[in-house]
Amino acid sequence: MKIVDRRTFMALPKNTLFSKWEPCVFGWLEIKGESLKNDFLTQEIASAVKCDDSGEFADLCDEAARTGGSIVMDLDCEGRDGCFDDEQMFAVWERADVLALIERLKACAGIGD
């Protein structure tokens, strides 16, 4: 993992796995999309609920909490970051880190050893 400034981060390619970072505090795990002029697209992972709007998002979460039902996830739905903080730092996962995460996720899904 590397910790980089916003300028370096904006030059990184689409599909970079990252967290926003401030000294010793890591934010949500996200996947970087395309860089825009002063912004970038991002795919949040933990809250990637398949829905059309924030009202449906809340309804789906409330129903799942009430009934114990499943929520369908959408891991191919990017949105603009919208935070234009030039001082923001980013913890960027390197290839070896991503491969290790894939292996761990396989274990979570009961795939492999």
Keywords:
single chain, 113 residues, alpha+beta, 6-stranded antiparallel sheet, 3 helices, 28% strand, globular
| Main sheet summary | 6 strands, antiparallel
User: What amount of the residues lies in strands?
Assistant: 25-35%
Alpha carbon gyration radius: 16 Å
Which parts are unreliable, with pLDDT below 50 for 5 consecutive residues or more?
none
Number of strands: 6
Number of helices: 3
Cα shape:
globular
Structural class: alpha+beta
Spatial ordering of strands, largest sheet: 1-6-2-3-4-5
N- to C-terminal distance: 26 Å
Mean residue pLDDT: 95
Structural notes for this entry:
The protein has 113 residues and is of the alpha+beta class. The protein has a domain at 2-46 and 77-108. The protein contains three helices and six strands. It has a six-stranded antiparallel β-sheet with strand order 1-6-2-3-4-5. It is globular, with a radius of gyration of 16 Å.
Q: How are the elements arranged and paired?
A:
Blueprint: E1 2-5, H1 6-10, E2 17-22, E3 25-35, E4 40-44, H2 54-67, E5 79-80, E6 89-92, H3 95-108
Antiparallel strand pairs: 1-6, 2-3, 2-6, 3-4, 4-5
Could you provide a short overview of the structure?
By secondary structure, this protein is α+β, with helices and mostly antiparallel strands. It is built from 3 helices and 6 strands; from the N terminus they run βαβββαββα.
